[in-house]
Amino acid sequence: MLPLMLDVTGKKLIIAGGGKVALRKLSIFLKEGAAITVISPEASEEIKRLHEKGVLFWKKTVIKKEDLEGAHFLIAATNDPSANEALCDMADKGTWVCVASDGNKGNMQMMSFKRDGDLTISVSTSGSSPGLAKELSGILMDRCKSIAEKLPVIKKERERIKNTLPMQERRERIRFFIQGLMRN
Hints:
NAD(P)-bd_dom_sf, 6 helices, 17% strand, two-stranded antiparallel sheet, Sirohaem_synthase_N, 44% helix, Rossmann fold, 5-stranded parallel beta sheet, single chain, alpha/beta
């Protein structure tokens, strides 16, 4: 699988399931502005609260094929692994599907990531150990705090160099600037 960063603003996300795993997965998309529908006969108190606030839509039923029409993303997070797998077959060919109970079943896996300003560090173990991926992303971000703090300066200088130097000099000058900044 290919690691990517995607703009999910306004993209239709369907979550099958209403428990803790569903909430954890949808929270990531919620922060990024996705249009979220939870489909599950039952839902956690937090999902109910988010529905009542109008932050997401909760459809209190078992998911059907027609519920998936036009979805960009589907997260199968029910408490039934066989139902989660069946959702892969139910989804349209153009839908990105994450099966929470088995990362190797869908066509998408969610990586563990940490963000500090413009610095995002993500780690995947390709489903082997999500807990380890979470631990590693935290360790790496802790070690990169000083880089996150320097990133606004790097960004500003990079733009200045891009706007003032000929193409052939840009990369070398930017690399030289970053190396000097990282030594300090």
